[in-house]
């Protein structure tokens, strides 16, 4: 009804000067007129200009005084005529409630003097209120009735031929889409970020762990795991079929690793077997991030010695049966400290510092045997 009234009026008249007066004349709620104007303006049916008027409205206290009178007048009429003070003693015969009259004038939308406005405002009987409306003229797309625009061209439109008369809605390429609901970090990523920050605060550098595919040389041989070890079988490790072997290994280091495997060295007796290069060349999905550590140690040895502290947190892969508690991949946390004169006490101190930053201060260390990390310990928190 409101839309028909606005478009119909503009068909016979050039403009609507005041949307408030227009709504009052038609007996339509002004908010309904405003909503229609905004819609018609958006589609170019009308040109709308803002109108703002500052008016004064009564507060709750002001509304009370406009109905029952101001407190001073109420006090005057509350004096008993016989037992109280006589009007002769008060030297007042008649009282006009000027405050009530002013409040009633404001309620009726009448203008009053600025001094009286200030007085009522000081008593917090009135507050300013901004009234917003519109003045309207015909827009570039004006029509007595809104045309229905379509957003999709269907098969029925083609078959009936009505596509020739259809008006399509214009695309607004600058309009923003629906706001995306932000996701949350996965619990694993939260833990990973927390542990990474702890290592960084302890002065560690993060090792590059982006090479999920590794050669058997760095994953096993450089860590002096014998080539006949069961962990190197296909039922424990994922070996690659495409790009099954690597072609790039540091030959000088390969030679030294071969000698230690076959005949020992550096305090080791070796394994006394024929080490095979083709086994070391096999590519696989790394079974531990220690393969990254072996690369970093080799790179560190190519430069003049300097103390270093490294860490890594990333995925590793094992050919294990998948069930509710096992996956074919998991995360490994690894730390590495390189310096001269380090002892087991230094390792215990680093572990104490690390776990204390997680809120674990009471730790107990128990000796344990692991063939590739000797000496080894188990850590208990209590």
UniProtKB/TrEMBL annotation:
EC class (word): ligase
Pfam families membership: PheRS_DBD1, tRNA-synt_2d
Membrane-traversing stretches: none
GO biological process: phenylalanyl-tRNA aminoacylation
GO cellular component, one term: cytoplasm
Domain Aminoacyl-transfer RNA synthetases class-II family profile: 190-382
Domain of life, source organism: Eukaryota
Keyword Transmembrane helix assigned: no
PANTHER family: PHENYLALANINE--TRNA LIGASE ALPHA SUBUNIT, PHENYLALANYL-TRNA SYNTHETASE
Family, similarity comment: Belongs to the class-II aminoacyl-tRNA synthetase family. Phe-tRNA synthetase alpha subunit type 2 subfamily.
Protein name (record): phenylalanine--tRNA ligase
């Amino acid at each position: 009804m409101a839309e028909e009234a606005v478009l119909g009026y503009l068909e016979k008249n050039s403009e609507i000067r005041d949307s408030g007066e227009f709504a009052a004349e038609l007996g339509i709620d002004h908010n309904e007129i405003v909503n229609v104007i905004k819609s018609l303006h958006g589609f170019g049916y009308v040109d709308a200009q803002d109108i703002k008027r500052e008016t004064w409205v009564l507060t709750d206290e002001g509304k009370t005084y406009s109905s029952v009178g101001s407190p001073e007048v109420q006090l005057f009429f509350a004096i008993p005529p016989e037992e109280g003070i006589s009007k002769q003693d008060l030297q007042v015969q008649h009282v006009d409630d000027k405050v009530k009259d002013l409040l009633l004038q404001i309620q009726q939308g009448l203008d009053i003097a600025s001094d009286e406005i200030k007085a009522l405002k000081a008593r917090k009987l009135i507050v300013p209120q901004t009234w917003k409306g519109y003045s309207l003229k015909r827009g570039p797309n004006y029509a007595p009735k809104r045309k229905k625009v379509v957003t999709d061209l269907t098969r029925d439109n083609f078959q009936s031929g009505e596509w020739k008369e259809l008006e399509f809605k214009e695309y607004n390429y600058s309009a923003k889409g629906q706001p995306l609901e932000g996701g949350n970090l996965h619990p694993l990523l939260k833990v990973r970020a927390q542990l990474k920050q702890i290592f960084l605060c302890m002065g560690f550098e993060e090792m590059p762990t982006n090479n999920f595919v590794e050669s058997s040389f760095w994953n096993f041989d450089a860590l002096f795991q014998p080539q006949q070890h069961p962990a190197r079988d296909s039922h424990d490790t994922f070996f690659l079929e495409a790009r099954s072997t690597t072609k790039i290994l540091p030959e000088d280091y390969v030679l030294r690793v071969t000698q230690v495997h076959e005949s020992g060295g550096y305090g080791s007796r070796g394994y006394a077997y024929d080490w095979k290069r083709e086994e070391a060349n096999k590519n696989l999905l790394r079974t531990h991030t220690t393969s990254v550590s072996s690369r970093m140690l080799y790179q560190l040895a190519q430069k003049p010695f300097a103390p270093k502290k490294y860490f890594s947190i990333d995925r590793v892969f094992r050919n294990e049966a998948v069930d509710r508690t096992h996956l074919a991949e998991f995360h490994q946390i690894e730390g590495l400290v390189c310096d001269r004169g380090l002892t087991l006490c230094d390792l215990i101190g680093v572990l104490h510092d690390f776990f204390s930053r997680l809120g674990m201060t009471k730790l107990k260390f128990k000796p344990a045997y692991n063939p590739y990390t000797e000496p080894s310990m188990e850590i208990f928190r209590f």
